[in-house]
């Protein structure tokens, strides 16, 4: 029998082991492909980043070529030119009386209202009796004035008597001087009492009843009193308010976006429901510096002549302002496209391309829009099909130097 030697265990190292050439070739090809893919991926990422930077950069030129759209008539053009500004839309307002042409009637002394002869809306003349008030305080003033007058009469008689005695040498000269001084003091007190009563500017009788009279011609626009009411100078509310309505105010609520073009002195037209074909012409008196926090409007006061009493306080009206004297580019509203918060138009440039141009808008009315900035007269603008161009918009990256 022949003894056979058992084979040894395989080595634990690759050293000394022969690797076939096909295996080596496969490994080399795999590594090469992996490197190529990695290089392509890096270039692709850089290219995407470059496009993103170009599209979002404010200095990037965004253009679009669309010969096919022009051929089929989807895109229409017009040359931008200056035109008269669009007229502002009328805004709501209300008629109010002018505080500078208004007088408030109050009771100069305490008392109770006995009668009221006028109502809101009544026209009154200066000096006309408005209401009567009974006052115990007035009785005291009348009594004070009478006592002062009686004191003057008594001092006058005393002076005459002492003067006669001095002439007869029956009284010393100093008594005459003292009597003269006493008379002057009594006269001063009488004059003060009479002035206090006249300062009330009321007509009264000796029984404590006085009348409040109209301090001016006008219309009663407010009444805050009734018969039996306690009144006096310590009451803050006026009893009656009389206003001259020959000139009134229209207080217009103008949107905040429209206020920049308005200033004092500009003309305005007030339209009423009662007289829609007869506008009242006035002038802006004041533009408020405050904005209503809820409606985002600004109050504009327009002063209007009202000799014929065609405008009544608290009436709702429409107020139309004249446009400013300057000229603007006016385009059809369809020429303007909006992307997020930006308004833009497409301008045709050399080579048949359309450039997306951001613009600042002014007033918009009746399918027209003002271009305040961003466009020059003479440039050709897409006025039809701008939305189609916006949808098909492609960006061209700015070459990197």
Describe the protein.
It is a single chain. With 401 residues, the protein is an alpha+beta fold. Helix content is 26%, strand content 32%. It contains 5 helices and 25 strands. It has helices at 21-56, 67-71, 136-167, 173-198, 386-391, and strands at residues 63-65, 76-79, 82-83, 91-97, 102-105, 111-116, 123-124, 129-134, 203-204, 209-213, 218-223, 230-231, 240-243, 247-255, 267-272, 280-287, 297-305, 316-321, 328-332, 337-339, 342-349, 353-358, 360-365, 368-373, 380-384. Strand 21 and strand 22 form a beta hairpin. It is rod-shaped, with a radius of gyration of 47 Å. The model is unreliable at 1-19, 23-62, 66-72 and 395-401 (pLDDT under 50).
The CATH homology group name of the largest domain = RNA polymerase II/Efflux pump adaptor protein, barrel-sandwich hybrid domain
CATH topology heading of the largest domain:
OB fold (Dihydrolipoamide Acetyltransferase, E2P)
Mean pLDDT: 78
Structural class assignment: alpha+beta
**Between the first and last Cα atoms, what is the distance in angstroms?**
89 Å
Q: How is the biggest beta sheet arranged?
A: 6 strands, antiparallel, barrel
Q: Mind telling me which CATH architecture of the largest domain this is?
A: Beta Barrel
Rg = 47 Å
Given this structure, which CATH class of the largest domain is correct?
Answer: Mainly Beta
Oligomer: single chain
Which spans of ≥5 residues are poorly predicted at pLDDT below 50? 1-19, 23-62, 66-72, 395-401
Strand % is: 25-35%
